[in-house]
Amino acid sequence: MRRGEIALQEKTRTLADLVLRLFIHFGDLKMPVVRALSRVAKQALLAPACTCQPLAVAVRNISFSPRQVTSDASFHSVSFSETDHPKVLITGGLGQLGVGLAKLLRRRFGNNNVILSDIRKPPSHVFHSGPFIYSDILDYKNLREIVVNNRITWLVHYSALLSAVGEANVPLARAVNITGLHNILDIAAEHGLRLFVPSTIGAFGPTSPRNPTPDLCVQRPRTIYGVSKVHAELMGEYYHHKYGLDFRCLRYPGIISADSQPGGGTTDYAVQIFHDAVKTGKFECNLKPDTRLPMMYIDDCLRATLEVMEAPADTLSMRTYNINAMSFTPEELAAEVQKQLPDLQVTYDIDLVRQAIADSWPMNFDDDNARRDWGWKHEYDLPELVQTMLNFIGSDSRVARVN
């Protein structure tokens, strides 16, 4: 054998041995592409001295994302019992729900086990309260790197453009709410994450039953926000059945919280009324007084999110659940606020876009499945909601003086 052939064979054996060792140590040998690499490596290692063949696999073209993996791939979520605590990443964390959920999860799992992320600069108190990282869900590589480097096991995906804002910028809503979701799904499946993606009352449309609205029925929403949420529900269920992704989803009603400003949603009037009542004593509502929608105080919403994430997988009869707490109209909410602030003046200037959206949404949610499967139970009804909101917002203002 010529000296050049001997040198080439030695290099081939060395490379094959390295590939085999790397994938035996790090890879999932059930994956088709890893099996193929293993076979090639073994053949090179066992080849006779006189037959020298180069490796026939272009390693640089191999990717392990579900975007490229064949249909017999199998992904398995790391169960909560297999780790001391989950390592949680929250996307879109500076929205209405992310900061509150981070506080709740940090109390339960430890401060350093919950990473808040967004593309915006966080306020000082959020930045210093626990881990924060820049994360753009449209940047697949960056998001994947965050998951790998921080050994994430739970992913809570809050990044989205809400209903009214989405209608004003459909291309951006499509990119954030749909393309961003695809990145999240692929990365969650690839790395065996437990994934939570919220849905909404906006996932229903004018042909859906409205009072009550069951978990399974005709949806067909007429906003890009609603369409993207139906897409998320169905894609999450598909990835669950196709790849074994541990996908969990709750359809939130309108969420009311005191420590965040309205963010462009159709139900935001139910937050704005408290700020205006405390600051000026006057509130102008952009929905008709008799527009009934399901609502929930944020503490109930965050607790429901934690409870469904902790629920054993075998207790879940479905992957997307309605959750409900109360249902009221602007007129009923204003009357309850006026019990605390009798001088509150309420007027109505109807926003036709938001009113059309609200008229296509459920008036009340049927959440019997959530209550049966994993024990969901709300704590805040309308009187408790109003008292809590006014106490929080008005502790040093008009409410305090009235009381």
Automatic annotation (TrEMBL):
Belongs to the NAD(P)-dependent epimerase/dehydratase family. This is L-threonine 3-dehydrogenase, mitochondrial. Catalyzes the NAD(+)-dependent oxidation of L-threonine to 2-amino-3-ketobutyrate, mediating L-threonine catabolism. It comes from the Eukaryota. One of its GO terms (biological process) is L-threonine catabolic process. InterPro entries: Epimerase_deHydtase (IPR001509), NAD(P)-bd_dom_sf (IPR036291), NAD(P)_epim/dehydratase (IPR051225). Gene3D superfamilies: NAD(P)-binding Rossmann-like Domain. It catalyses: L-threonine + NAD(+) = (2S)-2-amino-3-oxobutanoate + NADH + H(+). Residues 88-323 form the NAD-dependent epimerase/dehydratase domain. PANTHER family: L-THREONINE 3-DEHYDROGENASE (PTHR42687), L-THREONINE 3-DEHYDROGENASE, MITOCHONDRIAL (PTHR42687:SF4). GO terms for molecular function: L-threonine 3-dehydrogenase activity. Its EC number is 1.1.1.103. Pathway: Amino-acid degradation; L-threonine degradation via oxydo-reductase pathway; glycine from L-threonine: step 1/2. It comes from Megalops atlanticus. Pfam families: Epimerase (PF01370).
